[in-house]
Amino acid sequence: MSPAISEHEWLVTMTLARLVVRRILQSIPLLFGVITVNFLLIHAAPGDPSSMLLSKTATPEFAASVRAKFGLDKPLYMQYLYYMYQVLQGDLGFSLLRSESVSHLILQRLPATLLLILTAMTIATSVGTLLGVIASRKPYSMRDNATTAIATLGVSTPPFWLGELLLIVFAIYAGIFPISGMVSIRAQLTGFQLALDVARHLVLPAATLALFYLAFITRITRASMLEVLGEDYITTARSKGLTDRAVEQRHALRNALLPVVTYVGFTTGVLLGGAVLTETVFSWPGMGRLLFESLGLRDYPVLLGINIFVSAMVIIADLAVDILYGILDPRIRGGR
Amino acid sequence: MVARYPVGYMRDLKMEEPLVRVANLVEYFDIKKGFFQRKRVFVRAVDDISFEIKKRENLALVGESGCGKTTTARLILRLLGRPTSGTVYFGGKDIFNLSDEEMKQIRPQMQLVSQDPQASLNPRKRIAQILSKPFRLHTDMNRGEIENAVLDLLQTVGLSPPELFADRYPHEFSGGQRQRISIARAIALKPSFIVADEPVSALDVSVRAQVLNLLKGLQKRLGITYLFISHDLAVVRSVSNRVAVMYLGKLVEVAEVSKLFNAPLHPYTEALLSATPIPDPERSRSRQRVILGGDVPSPINPPMGCRFHTRCTIAVEKCKSVEPRLTELGDSYVACHLRT
Amino acid sequence: MRAVDGVNLAVQKGELAGLVGESGCGKTMTAFSVMRLVPPPGRIVGGEVWLDLGEERTDLTKLSEAEMRKIRGAVISMVFQDPMTYLNPVMKISDQVGENLVLHQGINRNEARKRAIEILENVRMPSAATVARYYPHQLSGGMRQRALIAMAISCNPELLIADEPTTALDVTVQAQVLQLIKTIKQDLGMALMLITHDLGIVADICDRVFVMYAGRIVEEGSVYDIYREPKHPYTVALLKSTLSIDEFKETLVTVEGSVPDLTSPPEGCRFHPRCPFMMDKCRTMEPPSIEAGDGRKVSCWLYA
Description:
The complex is a heterotrimer of chains A (336), B (340) and C (304).
Chain A: H1 16-44, H2 50-53, H3 60-69, H4 76-88, H5 102-137, H6 142-156, H7 159-173, H8 191-229, H9 232-239, H10 244-271, H11 276-281, H12 287-297, H13 300-328, H14 330-333
Helix pairs in contact in A: 1-4, 1-13, 5-6, 5-8, 5-10, 5-13, 6-8, 7-8, 8-10, 9-10, 10-13, 12-13
Chain B: H1 9-15, E1 20-31, E2 41-53, E3 58-62, H2 69-76, E4 85-90, E5 93-94, H3 100-106, E6 110-113, H4 117-120, H5 127-138, H6 143-156, H7 162-166, H8 175-187, E7 193-197, H9 205-222, E8 225-230, H10 233-239, E9 242-247, E10 250-256, H11 257-262, H12 267-275, H13 281-286, E11 327-329, E12 332-334
Parallel strand pairs in B: 3-8, 3-9, 6-7, 7-8
Antiparallel strand pairs in B: 1-2, 1-4, 4-5, 9-10, 10-12, 11-12
Helix pairs in contact in B: 5-6, 8-9
Chain C: E1 16-20, H1 27-35, E2 50-52, E3 57-59, H2 65-71, E4 76-79, H3 93-105, H4 109-122, H5 128-132, H6 141-153, E5 159-163, H7 171-188, E6 191-196, H8 199-205, E7 208-213, E8 216-222, H9 223-228, H10 233-241, H11 280-284, E9 290-291, E10 297-298
Parallel strand pairs in C: 1-6, 1-7, 4-5, 5-6
Antiparallel strand pairs in C: 2-3, 7-8, 8-10, 9-10
Helix pairs in contact in C: 3-4, 3-6, 4-6, 6-7
């Protein structure tokens, strides 16, 4: 005999699997939307894209043949379909000024960005949540106010300013860390030596990025913890005779971390498109720098390609966060 | 539309036209179930109920959570749009099929006093502003006249001297006073019908009497008709004239108040009364108790036959398959196979 | 502001004491004080809480926090008002019920889970084994309250404090829970303190009644005595204004005025501004607790 279930059962109930499938299915039209917007952006500019490829001295016949080659003489909807077909195959076009396909460029730069942001976010998350929890233990105490002040400072400091500062202090004056790049090109190192070298180069940019997001995460964690600690079930936990630490770890944390998870997941998704400012300051060979360079060079296909890539990454990150949330919070999953 | 009333209702009609008549009211709420469900699932909040409210009477609609009483009240006040089926008559007119002109006339006649006085009064407005709004919206009285009307209202609900109250904000008052202000707002345009939805549940015991006395007084002086929603039978006993008991979207008993409390007909009514504590240790502990097992079943999938049969102490075979209709028994109405 | 100002009460083993009062009278704070769970910045400023276990008497106010933690959940437990918000939404029922056992009896998690199911059966939870694996939002109101009660009795405490345990429940479910509380008292022989504003519940299951007003206990006695012959004017007024399904009251009695603001309570007897029997004395001198025979105590100059 199954027991009478509460009112919540009367509302939407989904198992975790159905949640996942549903979210994936929702993401698909979103992706199509992004690609469509991209397409419209390409064609929104005056003239057609072929004008980027042709010089002023091109003959009309040549121009026509170029257009035909890129299908620009076909009606718009056909171009749209063709574009969609291309994108879904992974072909994001060809760079104007570098002799490589956009997708190749992106894939080339991706590992560097991944290294940077994953390192930075791991540090930011672990240190940030720790600081946030510590601050929440005695709200408005000296410790808390100090932490909050530093966090506010961190949030208000633009990464490029901070990056430059760190660069000046630690790389130029102190000479501890290299000034730019990911590897010391001239040294031609391999294996373990290479890894060490990369690590040395990684410190400053990762620190810059980490400090920035650490500030946000600290604030979110602190606010979330304070809210959770005011909930009734914390009183229940205390009435069982649990120590404050046990209450914090076993009851409060699990609930308080939910908004933090959302924030971290989403931010990581966005950052997958490259931490533009930081990479630029440190000349880190990632997607962010690719974006920055292409902006300056007016390399439209690359810009648009990055646009699609970043959008896709954000959609995926969103999806991952939703699924993770469903795993952590049984209420989202629904009832049996 | 054919009104499928139980026999007996027609007889009452001849005596005096009821102010409010609910006819075969049905309200189902749609619940969408995920991506892959074919069947549509409904919450059967109100499932074919019919009753009347006579002029100047206080009819209590009682039941536990999920029985449909709040939904019924909202439907009557036209707050949920058209019901899934059935209708409500006010002064003989179908309130879901009114002309604009008729609507303008009827709207101010039906008012609501709800449970939480804190939520229903705008905390940023002064009492005078709150109370003058109905006049500003529906009449063409000038400022002076409205001011006087507002002071009059405060006097009527016992908030005296009224000048002291008019200039303040809701948060400066106690729960009982706020509820009286809510009532003042409701009676501003001299309505003939008020739906009181748990009007004293949020108030302290010693304060409840103030509000209840006020409601009873207004019933006498202004001839107001009430639909009194309550889960607390003790309040109903001293306030209402007739009582309608709901369970899982259905009416199970309708009776005059002393009959219902002294000689309940439906086993659910008996159980409700039995479960309600009596503030007298001797009476409370010496009476026969019927303690129902289990929880209220889900209105998505109500039991077959009589909806109460799963928890009923006297259920028989028939109760599991055949739904009892609300039938007349003397002056009361009951929906139970074993009583009719 | 003194939420609780000079409260004296005693609960015996096997006795169900009811602490009755309206909102803001300090009854919940009294309960929190016994458990020493008063939320900061509040704190206990005076008085004692004696726990008498026969062989030893301890003043709970003098214990260290660590010693107090041993008492909470194991010797004195509390059941709260709203079962939905007082249960951790992301923890299974079995884990929450078993937590006390792991903490105070040192058994491991698996063993605790099994014991939790037993306890849930003791509180008549339907399909206890299945429900144990559920989360709070999957349970109905009545079931959640049973879970809270199961949690509280898991270590067989000497005293169980129930703060408005049925206020958020439907009346038929309330009847079940109250009966459960009565059964627990009989089966486990513990002392129970029931906090409520509902005089019907008190009449139904309490043995002894303490009436509270504005942070003070104004009257005390056996449940039959108090209802048959209330002495303090506040008790009289409270009983008069309480409605019953048993009788029709034409005009309902109210108590004039409202509960005093505890940041500046009235001088003398706190009830004097609203008391129909007020004398001059009441304005300036606070009445002590006066014995009125038969284990009854009243704080009113009428009985001096």
